[in-house]
């Protein structure tokens, strides 16, 4: 059997079984001849398991202050070039109200690891937003289990915490002072506490191999993550990785498509970083396995200041404009905007 037929056979196999050995995942990620067939299979699986509805999540970037120092990230504490901000709780609640008025059914509260937002403040925010009949997703980093438990008791529904990479040595090199084991501990705690669990990885970080990306995808599967966000690493000039190459749009959508094939009923966003590399990035991602978009609902100058990487889209746009813009893109490819809160519907 030729290598070409092997690849096509693998695509057929994973489309039906949603299971694959690591070597086969690697072979598919490396292949360059049948990429369109591979994406088409991911698109069919997306349609079969999660349908044509696209879930919108309104993203509020409420603080760009972070105590961590991840080498790839613009919010790292040693980046003194960045003007820092922290929204007042009342402002965050106001942005959530606006998100609701624009028809969002979920808000995502995202920030750097900012200790100013203690359990009491977060509890207040979660309760306030839950009163608006919105699903609440948190994306605020590593915390002790007790803290996650308080967030959950306050009513938070979901939690996003990317593993970034499953290569422990690489992780600890890129995230100085952080422990990979603790990150996994966080993910397991979150799952046990009953959050819908989101994780994901960066594609194209220096030192990452295709084998390591295959491990990432198999890790998502083993964890049975409910949501998986995959995005290209985009070098930030104000970080130690300024001169690195970064990931490509193509490779990050391949990792995303593979994730769809292996976790067919999960919620997978077309990520902002993908569109930052390709003007059609989110629409293409939606046609290669994604079923979620997370438009920004942060207002004013804060968007510019939440600078994880350069070239971030929508930094000069308003929430109203983004809502309109993304609706056009989604309807334009024959998909629908979901009217539900968009929890994962597990299929046997
Ligand atoms: N390029 C792309 N994504 C990045 N993130 C942080 N820095 C970068 C970068 N330079 C991602 C991380 C983090 C998420 C909030 O942003 O994966 O989990
Ligand atoms: Fe902080 Fe997250 Fe950026 Fe790391 S990736 S520096 S934890 S905001
Ligand atoms: Fe923000 Fe298109 S989604 S401008």
TrEMBL record:
Membrane-traversing stretches: none
Metal-binding recorded as keyword: yes
Name listed for the protein in its UniProt record: [FeFe] hydrogenase maturase subunit HydE
Lineage: superkingdom: Bacteria
Enzyme Commission numbers on file: 1.8.-.-
Keyword terms of this UniProt record: 4Fe-4S, Iron, Iron-sulfur, Metal-binding, Oxidoreductase, S-adenosyl-L-methionine
PANTHER family per UniProt: 3-METHYLORNITHINE SYNTHASE, BIOTIN SYNTHASE
Cited CDD domains: Radical_SAM
Record bears the keyword Mitochondrion: no
């Amino acid at each position: 059997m030729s290598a070409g037929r092997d690849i096509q056979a693998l695509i057929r196999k994973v489309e039906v079984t949603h299971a694959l050995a690591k070597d086969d995942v690697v072979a598919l990620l490396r292949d360059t001849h049948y990429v369109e067939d591979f994406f088409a299979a991911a698109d069919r699986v997306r349609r079969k398991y999660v349908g044509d509805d696209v879930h919108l999540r309104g993203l509020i970037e409420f603080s760009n202050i972070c105590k961590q120092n991840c080498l790839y990230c613009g919010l790292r504490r040693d980046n003194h070039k960045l003007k820092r901000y922290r929204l007042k709780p009342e402002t965050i609640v106001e942005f959530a109200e606006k998100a609701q008025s624009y028809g969002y059914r979920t808000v995502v509260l995202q920030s750097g690891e900012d200790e100013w937002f203690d359990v009491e403040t977060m509890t207040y925010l979660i309760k306030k937003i839950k009163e608006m009949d919105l699903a609440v997703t948190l994306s605020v980093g590593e915390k002790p289990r007790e803290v996650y438990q308080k967030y959950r008791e306050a009513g938070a529904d979901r939690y996003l915490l990317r593993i970034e990479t499953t290569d422990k040595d690489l992780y600890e090199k890129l995230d100085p002072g952080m422990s990979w084991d603790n990150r996994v501990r966080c993910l397991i705690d979150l799952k046990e506490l009953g959050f819908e669990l989101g994780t994901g990885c960066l594609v194209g970080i220096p030192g990452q191999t295709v084998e390591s990306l295959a491990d990432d995808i198999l890790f998502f599967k083993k964890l049975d993550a409910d949501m998986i966000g995959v995005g290209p690493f985009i070098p930030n000039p104000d970080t130690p990785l300024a001169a690195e190459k970064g990931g490509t749009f193509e490779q990050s959508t391949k990792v995303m498509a593979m994730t769809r094939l292996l976790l067919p009923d999960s919620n997978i966003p077309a990520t902002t970083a993908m569109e930052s590399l390709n003007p059609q990035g989110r629409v293409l991602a939606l046609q290669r396995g994604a079923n979620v978009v997370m438009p920004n609902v942060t207002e004013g100058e804060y968007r510019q200041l939440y600078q994880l990487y350069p070239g971030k889209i929508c930094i000069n746009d308003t929430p109203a404009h983004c809502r309109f813009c993304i609706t056009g893109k989604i309807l334009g490819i024959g998909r629908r905007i979901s009217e539900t809160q968009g929890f994962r519907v597990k299929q046997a």
